[in-house]
Design goal:
Blueprint: H1 2-15, H2 17-20, H3 25-36, H4 45-85, E1 92-93, E2 99-104, E3 116-125, E4 130-133, H5 134-137, E5 141-144, H6 150-156, E6 164-169, E7 190-200
Antiparallel strand pairs: 1-2, 2-6, 3-4, 3-5, 3-7, 6-7
Pfam family, one: FKBP_C
Keywords: Isomerase, Rotamase, Signal
EC number: 5.2.1.8
């Protein structure tokens, strides 16, 4: 049935689009046809293993180069943003490079690295894309201060209960050259609005 054959081919192509986009599709179909009919392969097993290994290495090298180029671009954009941001009168910069703005002073206790805290927060990229928000979930987050990214660990200890700060976190104090998920790219500078609700009892 032609439609069934087309459907199989289309679904296979869609689910493997990234893997096969650089391939010679005529040769791909030839290999599929010969294998499905039980015919002898046009290449030996050794040759197939060799060319596939070479192809995989080339694909990995290309991917690494693309990631490096993206990381370099984000590093330059982030550095320019932080340099300009540091000029603002209400922005303070710590020795580590963390920048912060006090949105609301607090009156309670300050946490230490081994403290557990309850916070509300919203995380954004410098283009204002929101990638995480406990506020949107309407559910405060609880965690130990030392078990989050370095920029948070340092920044939270500057706060008192009831305070609201805006942190501008360079990549080295965030997710670094690896990034996180699909949204936080390598070397991304991050912005977090954080409300320290409570330093929880041990």
């Amino acid at each position: 049935n032609q439609q069934v054959g087309y459907s199989f081919g289309y679904l296979m192509g869609r689910s493997n689009a990234e893997s096969i986009q650089d391939l010679d599709l005529d040769a791909f179909v030839q290999g599929l046809r010969e294998a499905s009919k039980g015919q002898a392969a046009s290449l030996s097993d050794e040759d197939m293993a060799r060319v596939l290994t070479q192809y995989k290495r080339q694909a990995e090298a290309k991917q690494l180069l693309e990631v490096k180029q993206l990381a370099d671009k984000n590093a330059k954009i982030g550095a320019a943003f932080l340099a300009e941001n540091a000029k603002k009168a209400d922005v303070k910069t710590t020795a580590s490079g963390l920048q912060y703005m006090v949105l609301q002073q607090g009156q309670g206790k300050s946490p230490k690295a081994n403290s557990k805290v309850k916070v509300h927060y919203e995380g954004r990229l410098i283009d204002q894309t929101v990638f995480d928000s406990s506020i949107a979930r309407q559910q405060p987050a609880e965690f130990q201060v030392s078990q989050v990214i370095q920029g948070w660990t340092e920044g939270l200890q500057l706060m008192k209960e009831g305070a609201k700060y805006r942190f501008f976190i360079p990549a080295k104090l965030g997710y670094g050259q690896i990034g996180s998920g699909d949204v936080i790219e390598p070397n991304s500078t991050l912005i977090f609005d954080v409300e320290l609700i409570e330093v929880l009892p041990k």
